[in-house]
Design brief:
alpha+beta, Chorismate lyase, 2 domains, eight-stranded antiparallel β-sheet, 9 helices, disordered C terminus
């Protein structure tokens, strides 16, 4: 058995979906450019060591997604209207994070006034109570992230309408009543459970990027705890390694921790 066939064997995902995933990545990464003719079914059959019907099913999936177009007598081409799906550039400092969230209008799913987040040792102290805001974020009517935010109740009560209709971190940044001590974010590669898969319109088990973001005030209280699950193909993470404020990732057991450089404290 070849190494490729052994790799297929390690996954319970149907072969045609595995092949479609590889082809999709080639398109989204630019390996196959817009308007370019892709390999023939026969060439793909030989490359992936699968049956012709499997390749055809994989190509059909991408045609249905609008990524490929068949031209009779000419072959199959990458759509010229293919959109860049890397919609979100994950921030590595406070200012860029806030800028990326401005204008975001979350579609609220639920509000829970009786919920508490799970905090790690470095996440500060629990507030006396929290409000949990759950929403889905969209771009061009395509969902790209599921957001679960716990806000300290005393912070939420300062601007409840604003928190219900805008990105919570942007609202916090605007509030002169709050002074921040620390903000950090942990990134973990995960996979979509049935509920997330339904909300993000992706297959169950599809790769995701999970961000755990915590903001701590000058009293050591975790006033914001956000758990955001992104479609993996919707994001980019770029770190300026030689910038004036380089951010070095600290490898944890389950992911990469990125400390967001603290903003200058503001007091009322």
């Amino acid at each position: 058995m070849s190494k490729l066939l052994k790799a297929y064997d390690r996954s319970r995902v149907p072969l045609y979906i595995q092949v479609a995933s590889v082809l999709r990545t080639r398109i989204q990464s630019g390996q196959w450019a817009a308007g370019e003719k892709i390999s023939t079914l026969e060439e793909l059959e030989q490359e992936f060591e699968v049956a012709r019907v499997t390749v055809r099913q994989a190509v059909d999936i991408l045609r249905e997604e609008g990524l490929l177009q068949a031209r009779q007598g000419l072959g199959t081409f990458v759509s010229r209207k293919t959109q860049d799906r890397h919609w979100v550039k994950l921030a590595t400092n406070w200012n860029s994070l806030i800028e990326s969230l401005k204008g975001n209008v979350p579609r609220r799913l639920s509000i829970d006034y009786d919920s508490k987040p799970n905090l790690a040792d470095s996440d500060g102290e629990l507030a006396s109570s929290y409000v949990k805001l759950r929403s889905v974020q969209y771009r061009n009517e395509d969902p790209y992230s599921v957001v679960n935010v716990h806000l300290a109740r005393e912070v939420f009560d300062l601007k409840p309408d604003r928190f219900k209709n805008a990105a919570a971190l942007v609202t916090i940044d605007e509030m002169r009543e709050i002074t921040l001590r620390n903000a950090h974010q942990m990134l973990v590669i995960g996979s979509a459970d049935p509920e997330v898969a339904d909300l993000l319109k992706i297959p169950i088990g599809a790769p995701t990027v999970e961000a755990h973001c915590v903001v701590i005030d000058d009293g050591g209280i975790a006033i914001y705890v956000g758990d955001i699950i992104y479609r993996s193909e919707s994001i980019k993470l770029q770190i300026d390694l030689l910038g004036p404020q380089p951010v070095l990732p600290k490898r944890g057991r389950n992911g990469v921790k990125v400390d967001l450089p603290r903003r200058k404290s503001r007091r009322a």
